[in-house]
Design a protein that fits this description.
310 residues; Rossmann fold
């Protein structure tokens, strides 16, 4: 995922201005955790509701961000959309075959411009566009989350297009543990009481999620020989694999538990040299050095949403 900066400014200007450390990304002052929502039980029957978080850099056949992943500007953008849509629709088919009663697909790539209502699976609800308030992305009403097109974290070895939300974030730590998009989302979902059950992406992304959820179902659709080259499954084969893994993940749902970390939580964000934040630290708790800000909170939701979004 490479989020766009708001207001049409460049990514560098976005961080220099301090927007990334304030409420410009997320206003999440009162996002309930699972512990809070459990105190208000509903009498309505709960179906099996699954959230698919989609991205593009982990999709089969995609190895070059400039040529393939930049919305409406990449020369191969239309092809990339078709590949992503195929993978997402395969996951929807697998999840529903496995027993999911509702599937929400969140287009998580670069401002939510990669998927279209014209060709998304008819059994899915599509969440697109930007910005999206954090509480609308998912909550404790979901039974599970699934990743499609997911890449590994910034600095990951043997990974295709690795990064953590932005290419100008060098490292993220949660309570001293390195994390990327996978880790943050697994942790936030866990705080909501929602387990991560399946991922489709490259070999490095699969290894990354297995560090947190060893029993997770993984569809490894490609592997790297460098960060911008590697081996890929043919698209139909990748979709068949994703469909099978998604179905199996839902049938195994009872085996999964939410990934929880005990609070308080400290999120440390280290930017690249060119993206060092400006003098304002916004909602950060502390500036560790010129390139590193620290965000603290009572739990991962409280700490993370002071800085970023999902």
């Amino acid at each position: 995922m490479v989020h766009k900066a708001s207001g049409g400014i460049s990514r560098r200007e976005f961080f220099k201005s301090g927007v990334a450390t304030g409420a410009g990304i997320a206003t999440a002052g009162a996002i309930p955790s699972a512990r809070e929502t459990e105190q208000s039980p509903s009498n309505e029957p709960r179906g099996l509701k699954v959230l698919i978080i989609s991205d593009m850099e982990g999709v089969d056949g995609i190895f070059n961000w400039t040529d393939q992943c930049n919305p409406l500007k990449s020369p191969r953008w239309a092809e990339s959309q078709k590949l992503l849509t195929g993978e997402v629709n395969a996951a929807v088919e697998g999840l529903t075959a496995g027993g999911a009663t509702e599937v929400v697909v969140w287009d998580g790539h670069d401002g939510g411009e990669a998927l279209s209502a014209s060709d998304i699976h008819p059994k899915a609800r599509l969440l697109i566009g930007s910005p999206i308030p954090p509480i609308r992305e998912f909550d404790s009403t979901f039974s599970a989350i699934v990743f499609v097109g997911q890449h590994a974290m910034a600095g990951a070895k043997n990974a295709v297009l690795p990064h953590s939300f932005f290419f100008n974030i060098q490292n993220l730590w949660v309570n001293g543990r390195l994390a990327g998009e996978i880790g943050i989302r697994v942790m936030v979902a866990g705080e909501m009481g929602v387990p991560a059950i399946m991922l489709a992406g490259d070999t490095a992304a699969c290894s990354e999620i297995r560090e947190l959820v060893p029993q997770v179902e993984c569809a490894e659709v490609k592997s790297s020989v460098s960060s911008t080259a590697g081996y890929t499954l043919p698209h139909p084969v990748a979709c068949d694999l994703i469909r099978a893994k998604a179905e199996r993940a839902v049938t195994r749902l009872h085996e999964f538990k939410p990934y929880r970390i005990e609070g308080p939580v400290e999120v440390k964000v280290e930017f690249t040299t060119s993206a060092a934040p400006g003098p304002r630290i916004g909602r950060a708790s502390e500036r560790l050095d010129e390139r590193t800000l620290i965000y603290r909170g009572k739990n991962i939701i409280d700490a993370w949403f002071k800085f970023g979004r999902l």
